[in-house]
Amino acid sequence: MTTVQKIKEIEDEMAKTQKNKATSYHLGQLKAKLAKLRRELIAPSSGGGGGTGVGFDVARTGVASVGFVGFPSVGKSTLMSKLTGTHSEVSAIDFTTLTTVPGTVKVHGAPIQILDLPGIIEGAADGKGRGRQVIAVARTVNLIFIVLDVLKPLGDKKVVLRLRVREHTAKFLAQIIENELEGFGIRLNKKPPNITVRKKEKGGIAITHTVPLTNIDQDDIKGILNEFKLSNCDVAIREPNATADDLVDVIEGNRIYIPAIYVLNKIDAISIEELDLLYKIPMSVPISSKEWLNIDELIEKMWESLDLVRVYTKPRGLAPDYNAPVVLRRGKCSVEDFCNAIHKEIAKQMKYAIVWGSSAKHARGQKVGLEHILEDEDVVHISKK
Ligand SMILES: Nc1nc2c(ncn2[C@@H]2O[C@H](COP(=O)(O)OP(=O)(O)OP(=O)(O)O)[C@@H](O)[C@H]2O)c(=O)[nH]1
Ligand SMILES: [K+]
Ligand SMILES: [Mg+2]
């Protein structure tokens, strides 16, 4: 039996099994088994489709990257070409784009790399088409655009029905793509669960929790631990509404947490009433890449989601240069990171820095060292030794 077949078998068994006190332990074991099989599928050594993104990797430029993921012909390349000015083949024929096509767009002075990717279909994570190479690239970006075609498929002819169909279809299609990414260890718009599992030499299993366990019970947990052969460990759950999947994610470890925006494309071809309903889908931005509608909102949402930190340099006796920010990533935005982004020698030459802006304690500027954490739109002066 292939790994994909084994996965299918376990999924079927889980679907058939009613969750109750008697089955909890077994369901936990199945969840863990499933995660292990999926890990095999992602492993570069496994055949068929290939999981490494070989041939799909491109040189990375800019401070952050956005990957376009979606079914074929939803308009990914149309959007990418217009946004970046880089040519990526567009046509009404599915699977026009065959590999990663990179481009760059400057947003608020920050160069952002855009990766146009081939279309994926259901079963992509299991090796259908080039799905696994595409998703392997998606694992490396800072933001995913899940691009959807709001025209597909056309619903009922009756208007009221069609309105709902569009909204539900969009959600349904988004879910298929999301499942494919999840199958590859990508978690969208989610933080790593606040759960720790600490292995010990002996002493058995100890489970503690600072929040009520609503979606998982002791038997689920024990079933999962058993399948992972963790017979001596401390499990501490601090995540409200933690699930069995959360625990599996923590034990498996190689999960990647990436923000995502649902880009609902081709709104040029729908009515205002339909558009109003589409706006209800969380984390979504309706656009038309062909007619260039609502692209400003998309770029603003993209900027917010990337959560970048712009820092302006102030040379002695001169005004700060607001046109050329040094752009840093959240979590890597200390004064030292700022120095290194300019030149690797600067941190060594620095005596102190003066910072103005929201990270500074007072308006007249604060004297700080290399470890100081900067905020978006801070102004920094580096004083050399
Ligand atoms: N009406 C309308 N058509 C669009 C829009 N954007 C793209 N299209 C059309 O949709 C078709 C597919 O566009 P592509 O940009 O090639 O789509 P893709 O997602 O890159 O397709 P693959 O690379 O094959 O996955 C083309 O005929 C485009 O002209 C839009 O905003 N509105
Ligand atoms: K196409
Ligand atoms: Mg394309």
UniProtKB/TrEMBL annotation:
Gene3D superfamilies in alphabetical order: 3.10.20.30, 6.10.140.1070
InterPro entries assigned to the protein according to its UniProt record, in alphabetical order: Beta-grasp_dom_sf, DRG, G_OBG, GTP-bd, GTP-binding_2, GTP1-OBG_CS, P-loop_NTPase, Small_GTP-bd
Keyword entries, A-Z: GTP-binding, Nucleotide-binding
GO terms of biological process kind: positive regulation of cellular response to amino acid starvation
SUPFAM superfamilies recorded: P-loop containing nucleoside triphosphate hydrolases, TGS-like
Xref: PROSITE patterns: G_OBG, GTP1_OBG, TGS
Nucleotide-binding recorded as keyword: yes
Domain OBG-type G: 64-307
Top-level lineage group: Eukaryota
Domain named TGS: residues: 307-384
Name of this protein: OBG-type G domain-containing protein
Entry's Gene Ontology molecular function annotations: GTP binding; GTPase activity
